[in-house]
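User: Here's a protein and a ligand (beta-D-galactopyranose). What would the complex look like?
Assistant: Let me lay out the input and then the predicted complex.
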Amino acid sequence: MRNQHSMLFSSVIAATVLASTQAYGESEHFGKTADGQDVEVYTLKNESGAIVKLITLGATLTEMHVPDKDGKSADVVLGFDDVAGYQSEDNQYFGVTAGRVANRIAKGKFSLNGKDYTLAVNNEPNHLHGGVKRSLDKVIWKAKEVKTKLGVGVRFSYTSPDGEEGYPGKLHVSVTYILSNKRNSVRINYTAKTDQPTPVNLTNHSYFNLAGAGSKTVLGHTLTIAADKYTPTDDTLIPTGKIESVEGTDLDFREPTRIGKRIKSLDDTAAIGYDHNYVLTRQDVKAGELAVAARLRDPKSGRILVVRTTEPGIQFYSGNFLKDQKGKGGKTYAHRSALCLETQHYPDSINHPNFPSVVLKPGETYKHVCVYSFTAK
Ligand code: GAL
């Protein structure tokens, strides 16, 4: 059941866009949450055959269909077929907008302007991805289709009240996904405004397997990360505060490297594989401008993902905690069968004054752009 606004939008788009570019956006009912709230799904298509689906629960990217080197399309992100899947224990933040503060805050504690704050500890002994019940991945966002020169998209917005999940300030957040008409790229624009100083660090938590979601492993993918340095962590995955060189470590991805090449040496670490924040080099790129952060390639399908961002860091997580859960189309998501490349500020920045600040103040606008571009050869 489509809402009226979407129907109107769809017909306007159909008339004006389909004729020229064949790109359009439309929404349908996806299902209901356990407490009876409606969840809508939006579909975006472009003239090169890419299809993107997004839902209002968690402003989540649920599907991303892109062609391989022979033109054969596959869905390259993990997800579920229904709302119940997204609300289940099996959902390890698949495709969601994570926040208010993505990744970990040590022991769920921080101080700001002389006041101490305590957040939920949901990843012993730390706070992870914004909390438990009302983190940004778990709430229903308002959605509105947008049409830009680049392509059609959906603008999700949500107002988080003062004190939600323990964070100070009323926070207005918006996340806009745009599928480019010409290229198979999804641009994610984040903005946020607050009425009190508060930490903000948003990211998209898509899990990619370029051979298609549900394929056995990503260990054969080749990865390049544009970073000379990373933030080492303790055995609870909290940064020690140091910034160290990747040179001579198993974390060095400055040259294209097969993910499986050295991962064994990380088996017995707290991360059980790659789960590290890289400090992006951003050489000669001004603040606020996009820089290439990572490039991922699956040799079999030839699919290539390039990640560009305005952010200073990227979390490379090799799907170590995936646990054979059943996802879309009954496919199984095994240990290391997908990976995340999360553009962000560094984890636990609020407790590390030497890291770039995540504090947003009244009158300022949080801005973050992340672009996932797909090609194949
Ligand atoms: C990642 C994080 C991992 C894990 C995962 C969700 O962003 O780095 O440690 O918590 O999310 O399962």
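Summary: The longest helix spans residues 4-18.
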